[in-house]
Each structure stands twice: as C-alpha cells, then as structure tokens.
C-alpha cells in the first residue's frame, strides 16, 4: 500500500473507503470491479491503483479499517466496563450505530466478507475474524458472573445465540433499500429486554425474601 493514501484529505480518504464498502458489499469479491469503486469515489482507476497495488490489498485494507474503527468505537463507548452482559450489549449497539452512521455500508461489507467463499481471501478473513473474537472474549468473559443468570444456563451457548440473532437481524435489515437506524435501536433494545427477562436471574423484591 502506498502511504500517499494517508496524506490525502480526510474527506477524500473517507470517500474512497465508502466507495469500497459500497461496491464490495453488493457483489462477491471476484465480481467487484475496481473501476466501479474508483468511479464511485470520483477518482480514476489508475489513481486508485496508485494508492493500492491490487484489489486484494484494497479489500484487506477495508477489512482491517472496519475492525480498527469498530474496536476504537467500542473503547470510546466503554462497552466492556460494565460487569453486566446486557449493559455491555446495549453500549455495543450504540457503538455499532455510531460506526454505521459514519460508514453506512461498513456492516454490510463485513457480513459479506465473513461469508465470502473465494479461496483468495476467505481463509485470511476467517483467521482475522477468529482472532478478533478471541481477543474480545478474553476481555469480556471474565466479567460475566454466572450468578447473574438463571441456574443451569450454558453461558457460552447463550452468548453465541445472542450473537447469531444479532447478526441475522442486521443481515436482514441491510437487505432493505434504506436503513432505519431508529427502528434498529428500538428493536434491539426490545430484544435486550426480552433476553434479560428470559435469562437473567430474578431479583427478590424487598420484603418478599422469605
């Protein structure tokens, strides 16, 4: 990668990044034309190749950028500070919305990349993804206390189920022509309330602890 990309004004960098997310999120890796990315960004194809040597380099730059922005925003929102899984997830939702508002198609790109089958990139994406998940779990899992949940729950499976549900909801929402951030926030907060009622340990009411 040519470091001249980072010398560009922030607005132009963001335009190229958004163009990459736009094209790659709508097509498979193989069927994503670099020329279309350049056109969407308002630059020539040769100039894009001046910043990135080839399509694969651009793709992994966008993947790493998505991970970097997501992790930074998670830290900004102090998502791992609470010792309550549901509060962590609530903060995580607001962090995710913050990233999506700045880079509207970043989430669609990352989901598309996760399911990408092209052997040129799929193994590297999965390796990177599992590393991110492993690092994240190492931070938040020690903060989760089994006594906060109903007895007998498999907490690891519970967290996986929550993750699969969230990812499935986002994937469906992203298939719409327009993305309704307010609706996503409302739905996800309702889902969190549902999970907390279903899986959280009931707290005895005052005066009723016999």
Describe, in plain words, how this protein is organized in 3D:
The chain is an all-alpha fold and 210 residues long. It has a single domain, classed as Tetracycline Repressor, domain 2 (Orthogonal Bundle), CATH 1.10.357. 65% of the residues lie in helices and 0% in strands. The protein contains nine helices and no strands. Helix 1 (10-24) packs across helix 2. The model is unreliable at 204-210 (pLDDT under 50).
Layout of secondary structure:
Blueprint: H1 10-24, H2 34-41, H3 45-51, H4 55-76, H5 85-102, H6 106-114, H7 122-140, H8 155-173, H9 181-199
Short recap of the structure:
With 210 residues, the chain is mostly helical. The longest helix has 22 residues.
Q: What is the CATH domain class?
A: Mainly Alpha
Question: What is the number of helical segments per DSSP (H or I, 4+ residues)?
Answer: 9
DSSP strand count: 0
* Poorly predicted ranges: 204-210
Count of domain modules: 1
For the biggest sheet, the summary is: none
Please state the CA-atom Rg, rounded to the nearest Å.
20 Å
CATH homologous superfamily assignment:
Tetracycline Repressor, domain 2
């Amino acid at each position: 990668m040519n470091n001249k990309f980072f010398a560009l004004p922030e607005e132009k960098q963001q335009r190229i990044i958004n163009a990459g997310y736009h094209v790659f999120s709508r097509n498979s890796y193989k069927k994503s034309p670099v020329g279309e990315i350049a056109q969407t960004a308002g630059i020539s194809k040769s100039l894009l190749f001046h910043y990135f040597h080839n399509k694969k380099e651009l793709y992994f730059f966008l993947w790493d950028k998505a991970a970097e922005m997501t992790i930074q925003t998670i830290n900004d929102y102090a998502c791992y500070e609470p010792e309550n899984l549901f509060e962590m997830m609530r903060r995580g939702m607001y962090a995710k919305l913050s990233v999506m508002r700045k880079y509207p198609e970043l989430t669609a790109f990352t989901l598309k990349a996760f399911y990408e089958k092209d052997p040129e990139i799929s193994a590297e994406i999965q390796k990177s993804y599992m590393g991110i998940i492993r690092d994240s779990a190492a931070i938040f899992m020690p903060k989760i206390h089994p006594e906060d949940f109903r007895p007998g729950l498999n907490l690891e499976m519970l967290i996986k189920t929550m993750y699969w549900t969230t990812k499935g909801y986002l994937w469906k929402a992203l298939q719409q022509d327009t993305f309704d951030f307010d609706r996503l926030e409302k739905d996800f907060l309702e889902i969190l309330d549902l999970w907390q009622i279903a899986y959280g340990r009931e707290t005895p009411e005052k005066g009723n602890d016999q």
